[in-house]
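Pasting as-is:
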Amino acid sequence: MISKPHRDMGDLPSPTVTSAESCDVPIQATPFSQAKSIFRNFASLTAAMAASRLSALASNAVLARRVSTSGYGITGIAQTVTIYFGLLSDLGLGTVALREGAQHPERLQSVISSMMGLRLLLASAACVLGLLVSPYLPFSEGSRALLRFYLLTLPIQALSVDWIFRAVQRMYWNTILESAAAALTLILTIVLVREPRDLLRMGGIVAVTAAVTALLGIFILSRQGYHARPTFSLSQAKYFLGQSLPLCASFLSMLLYSQANNLILGVVRSEADVGLYGAAIRMNQVFYLPIWLFFGAMAPALMQSWVHSPERARALLSTSVRISATFTIGSGVVAASAGSWLIARIFGKPFAGAGQAFEIMIWTEVVVAIGHNWSELCIAAKKNRFLVQSNFLGAIVNIVVCAATVSRMGTKGAALGTLLAAITVAALLIWSFGSQLGLGSLQSAAKPAIAGAGAYVISLATRWTAPPICATLSALSYVALLFLTGGISIGDLKRLRAIMPARKIILEPTSA
């Protein structure tokens, strides 16, 4: 429900701004210029991020088909455990760095150097700790061996500079880096992983891709007038950690209800179940890619708005709720119509059983995305206590439900635990902001929800047709119902056209 504290391991190999005036979005930005900035960021992220996510999906599909459900489950277990140690190497510092860079661009170079030094130190310690702990984890030797390779990449990932480009709202560089990483991963996976015994090569692929991406990011950063030379200051480290540790607690609780299920499945059931669950997660990520691109573009603007005009931030929050509800509910309707069919077609027939968990995951993501608006607001307002409390309660709900149901229901029980946890977290976050910022803003999701309910009924009524036809009819009915309920209007389309960059047409003289 909060900003992701780590890069998704399965998607890995996944002018100088010195003052407020030179930032892409001026501090005193008008709502119109702010909307243009968000749209520009969203467009730059979308352009190549779609290609990079599709490349990542292709990499996972190739891997799954070549190493079977059990082998794919081994990678899922290793990735999930690495994520927890990755949290120790970050401790929420990436989000704090983003906020500091967006709100105080004049201090960005100092923040870069201090963050690089602190994160390298933490990542090295987390790597050593992980290597010491790995022999005692309750998983197969294959999972533990791959885990050790992944742990060695933590110091490399600490060199990532993606948060810097987000802070100065030059998202297109992140898009380029993500695309390069996904393409390199796909190529190396196709070439190096051909059968189950090649599975350990995935550790080398992750390491190579992380190194190439980090070096490319540092080179681009230098071309923007900044350097990535790490420094260490005890006073700055104390300040940053004081800001980040509450966020880290929230990230940990989020992982307990979004990633712990892989580990519970691996211990209680089998690595094959983890493989099925992982395939459902990958497909879920594809359907909901647009909204997370939107949040990446919107978050810096919300942070700036909160500092200079809480009223403007409230208006932006309400708009964001409506957009996120519209996108995710529509994606959920389409996913319910054709998602399970696509999983079997992309990952192979052995993964057809992933459809049961996927049917629950698609609606979990709707709840998560809508609630994420208040998570971003908590970060902007520095109300980290709300995040800690809500996410830890969600983690308890997930672990209890998952532990009680996974032995009998398998992947379906794991997905059910996450859904109930997401509802718990979203409800607490919305309630904690009171009537105006909470329930008042939530009302923006009412019309998309009504349109989605109607479209879902049509989806159920047309399930007898081929999945592509059912998905098309569901999508068209959702759009039509949005217009009928007023969820989208002609005025919205006009405003969208107004914030799009105008295309300049230059007529060149013709030769005589």
